[in-house]
Design goal:
Layout: H1 3-11, H2 15-27, H3 35-50, H4 54-62, H5 70-89, H6 91-95, H7 99-105, H8 123-155, H9 161-190, E1 196-199, H10 201-207, H11 209-222, E2 228-232, E3 239-242, E4 250-254, H12 255-260, H13 263-278, H14 281-308, H15 313-330, H16 332-353, H17 356-373, H18 382-386, H19 399-410, H20 421-426, H21 429-435, H22 442-456, H23 464-472, H24 476-511, H25 516-536, E5 544-545, H26 548-552, E6 563-576, E7 583-588, E8 593-598, H27 602-606, H28 610-619, E9 623-632, E10 636-645, H29 649-655, E11 657-658, H30 661-683
Parallel strand pairs: 2-4, 5-6, 8-10
Antiparallel strand pairs: 1-2, 3-4, 6-7, 6-9, 7-8, 9-10, 10-11
Helix pairs in contact: 1-2, 1-3, 2-3, 2-10, 3-4, 4-5, 8-9, 8-14, 8-16, 9-14, 10-11, 11-13, 13-16, 13-17, 14-15, 14-16, 16-22, 17-19, 17-22, 24-25, 25-30
Length: about 675
Amino acid sequence: MSLKAGKEALLRKRYTEAIAILSEYCHGHPDRTAKDYIQAQMWMVKAYQKSGRADKAIAICEQFEDNPDPQLQQWSKKSIVTLRSQLEAMPEDRLERNYDVASVVKSSASRYRKTNVTLAFDRKATYIFILAMFVTVLLVFGLILGAWLWGISLISLTITSGWWMVAGIGTGVMGILLFFMSPWIIEITQKQYQRTQWITLADLDLKSPEAVEIIEKFCETKNILVPRLGWIEDDSPVAFTYGILPNSARLVVSRGLFLNLDDDEIATVYAQQLAHIQNWSFSVITFASAPIQILYLIYVALSRKSYQAKRAKNVFKVLAAIASFIHACSTYLLLFITKSSTYPCDRFAAEVTGNPNALSRALTKIAGGLVQQNQLGKPPNRLLESTRALGVCDYQTTTAIGIAQEILHSGQSDQNVYRVFLWELFNPWSRWIEFHSTHPLIGRRIKVLTGYTKQLGLISEYDFPQLLKEGSKLDKGRLYRNFARDLFIQTAPYTGVTVGLIAAKLLYWWVYNNWLVLSFPAIGLGLGWMFQGSLRYPNFRRVVDTDLVSLLIDPYASSLHGLPVQVPGELIGYSSDENYIGYALKLEDQGGMMYIHYLPNFRSMFSSDKLMIQKMETLIDQSVIASGWFRRGSMPIVDLSILQPILGEQKQERNSLTSYHQFWNNILSSAIVLLGLLILISTSPLF
């Protein structure tokens, strides 16, 4: 940075930008007695004074009180008098430069009276985080070594000590190259999905002055350069950090973050991202993310090709599906480090801002913003998919909290919507969901942040202490009995295959039929699948008339065992479902919205879907009753049985939309059983 650039920013009244440029200029200056260094310091005093930070200007002036130059001494003394009078005589004006910055000093009941506090933290989490750093790096190098050994095995039948040396050296070289090239790889791949604009602290100061304060203090304390600040024009609330060294880190946010969050909440998100730089987790995550970003780029390219190609569309769709599966599997490489680094980063944000409640609010508001952006009929958001592990939270596990946030925002429910957190805190299935998530569940993170508010003597958000008391009174026996039942349901097909293999092995010595190994497991698989369907889609004799809020706040809700429900609402959209076969419908009631999974019949699925589309179009914006089976997993969903308009009986029957979950489960499971029986009969010597 040049002295001229700093002067130009000062003349243009971009005081924050001028401070950043001049600070960097002075930081690298070899001679602190030189005229240009002193001139830069004087301009910094003016910039701090104009931006309302007289205390920092005084600190600079005090350095020149004992300077041998009498003119410089006189200037510093006069400036200190002026600045102190400004600091003492106009405190309100200084603080009212921005209300949220002022609140750092003027504390509220939900925010501590000062920043840079110290919070107690479980050391076990710190040790786990350090272990995750080493394990992730070793896994990446292990995968590179495996690739080398696989390549060597193609050209040599035996891997000698010489080949092991080649593989070891190659792994080291490729690992080091990948380490230093990983930020560039992420930057190149991100350019394929969205355009990143690079902004200055002055630009950010217009949007979030408190975030600028946090960044400046952090960089000054750590003696590093200000991270390169990125801005993406996307309404999805996203923030992520990547890079290898602290002085070359990139901190990127989206427009959606500022649309959904207040200034103090934005500041905590920036602080949380700076924490990744502080503990070096951003470096390891960037290193491990680079090959995953390449896999995702391949998937996107094949997916686009499947839409653009005039021939072999299905071939590209299959290839895209394979690439998507490989990318999804590769994401597990990052889960240990991303989850273990989240809690230390949350604590750092709470310490730096003295405002753990703001981070709690930010997490729920981000979840709400993600739900708003998840529009049916639109292609998947590449920004969310490509930054899933880099971001603040995992968009795949925030749907329930996001819907609850929307309900709270609407204020149309008289129930305690905060109870939505009970499922994430106490239901055993939440551990399984979190295992597959890139970040800890929001409810668990807010629980830890609530502990910080208690340390600071603050009032916590979302009545969390009361929720924890209520959670301690839940029927733990019922929770774990339901979990055991669900595991039994989920493993029924695999149990059937295992029993079939054992039976085939035992009977082989009696009938000497090699086909038993195929027929018996097929019969076991079909029977297990049939049994799974009978419990997943029970009959409607115990159907529950309910609403969306009641389903969301039920801590006993299952991820597998369907609860027969009837939910009134308005159908507001539909689209093909990427996660399941069939269609996703969007139902909205007075409180919020819910996704419904619709599975059409044989004709609509494999032949013409014209009649089905017409029915869905007819039901759009109509008041309907959805009957089906509710499940609460990574996202709450209803497997539809029938969707009926609230009209007269004739129109109701004609325009009803019937789903075929039970039908397809029974047909496919019966077909597998019959196939196994056919193989058994056709190959058995008894027939």
